[in-house]
Design goal:
Layout: E1 2-7, E2 10-16, H1 17-26, E3 35-37, H2 42-61, H3 76-93, E4 97-99
Antiparallel strand pairs: 1-2, 1-4, 3-4
Helix pairs in contact: 2-3
Length: about 100
């Protein structure tokens, strides 16, 4: 299954369910077929995803592997990057992010 995230501030973003579920849990949302991130919720979600990105950069700079994955695999931080950009644009323009509607 796929998740299709939508916002008036950005183009649609499609993620595999497994990755979207991980990202949603990380930002404190229960994965479901439908949902919304309100403008008020966006700053906290952006901060969490930015922290994930920074941790990933630090691990890669130290030469370590992320979550015991080989270097050629895509990390959750990398997969979440387009979503973080969508959240930032949505917050800047004052629009919520929805999925499943």
């Amino acid at each position: 299954m796929l998740y299709k995230f939508k916002s008036k501030a950005a183009g649609n973003l499609i993620m595999f369910q497994a990755h979207a579920d991980q990202v949603l849990r990380l930002i404190g949302k229960e994965p479901s077929a439908k949902g919304i991130l309100t403008v008020e919720e966006l700053p906290a979600a952006i901060a969490i995803l930015e922290r994930l990105r920074q941790e990933s950069v630090e691990v890669s700079k130290s030469g370590g592997q992320i979550a015991n994955k080989p270097a050629h695999e895509v990390s959750l931080a990398q997969r979440a990057q387009p979503f973080r950009v969508m959240l930032e644009r949505s917050f800047k323009e004052g629009h919520e992010v929805v999925w499943g509607v």
